[in-house]
Amino acid sequence: MALQLDHVVLLVENLDEGIKQYQKEGFKVSKGGKHNNGVTENALIHFKNGTFIEILAVRKRWKTKWTKLLFQIGYFKADSQSPHSGFQQRFVGRALLFPKGIIDFCLLATAGEQDFWEVQKRKVPTTHLTSMQRLKPDGQVLTWKIFTPFSMYLPFVMTPYEPPFSPLPANLEHENGIKGIEKLSVYIPKNNFENAVQSYKQFLDKQIAYSDEEKVVFQLEKGQIAVCKGDVHLGFSISYLS
């Protein structure tokens, strides 16, 4: 397995206000765009070590209300291998139903599809590996593939962009001196902590750097994931590299 920390998804109430807030905190923020789901839009904070933060906001429109109703009646299933249902549950569902703050994170599969098949060998239930694409403002089409485990505690995974994409050097320089995301901590409800740790061991092939009764830290090819015993709700926090 050749997995590394890629990005964190941070939900805000209003995208423009979210951008201003992170600019005040010394980050260089790049405007992203509107997603094809019709519900969300984003901005990006890129770092020198290759990680980034996706600032995500829900758009105020009729499709948002309709999609939220579909989630509330259980139309989308979290355990569906279908890209439509599985990805909607993961990405749009969290944006609509989770409180503001960090709602998700992603690992980069630097070995591409090989990493997906390694996960399948370990019997981790996931969606199918699915092709994605995005049209850049300069007309270039970026493509990649993505899959997500059914467990809400595990990260989703993407392959590298093709052709390779690099942010503008000026967008990697932040006034606060931060160079990247070093560690992502996941806070698991106490009654699910042991099961979540076992899921991570199965998913990451037991790449444990440290463990005690309160947390287990997994070492990735780049970066770390700390699975921590929390309270009653799923939560996240970032440790930065400066």
TrEMBL record:
<protein>
    <submittedName>
        <fullName>Glyoxalase-like domain-containing protein</fullName>
    </submittedName>
</protein>
<dbReference type="InterPro" id="IPR025870">
    <property type="entry name" value="Glyoxalase-like_dom"/>
</dbReference>
<dbReference type="Pfam" id="PF13468">
    <property type="entry name" value="Glyoxalase_3"/>
</dbReference>
<dbReference type="InterPro" id="IPR029068">
    <property type="entry name" value="Glyas_Bleomycin-R_OHBP_Dase"/>
</dbReference>
<feature type="domain" description="Glyoxalase-like">
    <location>
        <begin position="5"/>
        <end position="200"/>
    </location>
</feature>
